Amino acid sequence: MSSIPLEAYVRNRSGIVLASVVLFILAAGCSSSNSSDAGTDPGITPDVPVTTDPGPGDVTPTDTPQTDVPKTDVNPADVVQNDVPVGGDLPSDPGTEIVTAQLTIKEVSMSGDTVLPGVLATLVSSTDGTSLGQSATSDSNGQVTFQVQANDRYAVKLTMASHLDSYTFNLNPTSAQEDANILSQTTADAILGMLSVTQDSAKGIVAGGVDYVVDGSGGGAPVGCAAVESVPATDIYYFGSSGPMTHAQQSSTSKSKSDFLAFNVPTGSVAFTAKVNGTQVAAGTGLAFANAISFRINVQGSGAANPTPADCAQ
User: Fold this and answer.
1) At residue 186, what are phi and psi to the nearest 5 degrees?
2) Is residue 6 within 8 Å of residue 22, measured between CB atoms?
3) Helical (H) or strand (E) element with 3
4) 49: cis peptide before it, omega within 30°?
5) Cβ contact 239:259 at 8 Å
6) Three-state DSSP class for residue 77
7) Relative to the CA of 313, which of 58, 66, 152, 191 has its CA 20 to 30 Å away?
């Protein structure tokens, strides 16, 4: 898809949210726990208790007389601590397939997305954004690879000097081509200035979109004229044909590109809902981090028909 001056897409219309951003903006989820029950060995019985009646002098200060406590032979493999057999391996899920996921790192700018080498990419938890122990630096083609589970979406954190820490969520592990975005401080400042937003550095920015999956369609489509709300409350702006719009210009999503930006988002989890004519049609959650931007936050609904009003003009 070709770049549009001052904007980039926040979502992938094939059903995955594209973490791009308005070049003018910053626009841009399985854990399986197997417990092992303690095994038993019916063939082992307690030994007959043995007692001793030591005579005077038979016990020295360093001797320990036997007590009348029965002794039981225990097979170490039968002992379980916190669902992990002592001396054994952690329970595994034989159905989990590990695949090599490839990402292309792109910088969002006012002139378009640009492949960016030298960016440190770290695989992070989709639950809290903490590192999962895999990191790589983008090569001359802006590419990195990670080993991830084939059956679960994954997330990365991108860091580079003079750029906001940039998180991309909801990445497809089996997609042949996935992009993760990073936003420069310069571009962020330009967007904030255009929208007359004062961003608190102790809070974050979220770039997301509103999608609706029609029954049987297999993919999501934009929802137009949807008003996005959040808990906790944030400052939300929408995209028009030429990029992010001020509150006076646009007060709900566009039907062709239902993307939004949320500024001054308190750190941690944030819940989003989208309403059309006062009726909730979609919901989703995201994570925000101080002085950072989070891309590809999905606010999604499903049903028999896309709820975009017939008279939605934007």
Assistant:
1) -60, -45
2) yes
3) none
4) no
5) yes
6) helix
7) 191
Element (DSSP H or E) covering residue 75:
none
The separation between CA 70 and the C-alpha centre of its own chain, rounded to angstroms, equals 53
**Dist. CA 223–CA 252, nearest whole Å:** 10
Whose tokens are 């895999």? That residue is 134
Distances in whole angstroms, Cα of residue 196 to Cα of each of 131, 193, 241, 263: 34, 5, 19, 11
Q: Model's pTM, two decimal places?
A: 0.71
pLDDT in tens, 174-193: 998 899 999 999 999 999 99
Residues 226, 20: Cα–Cα separation, whole Å: 20
Half-sphere exposure at residue 18, Cβ-oriented, CA atoms within 13 angstroms: 22
Cα end-to-end span (Å), the chain: 21
Strand, helix or coil for residue 19 = coil
Rg (CA), the chain: 28
Nearest residue to 120 (alpha-carbon basis) of 93, 157, 87: 157
Structural domains of the chain ordered from first start: 98-303 (2.60.40.1120)
The answer to whether the beta carbons of residues 273 and 228 sit under 8 Å apart is yes
Give 249-275 pLDDT, tens digit per residue: 999 999 998 999 999 999 999 999 999
Phi, psi (degrees; rounded to nearest 5) at 193: -65, -40
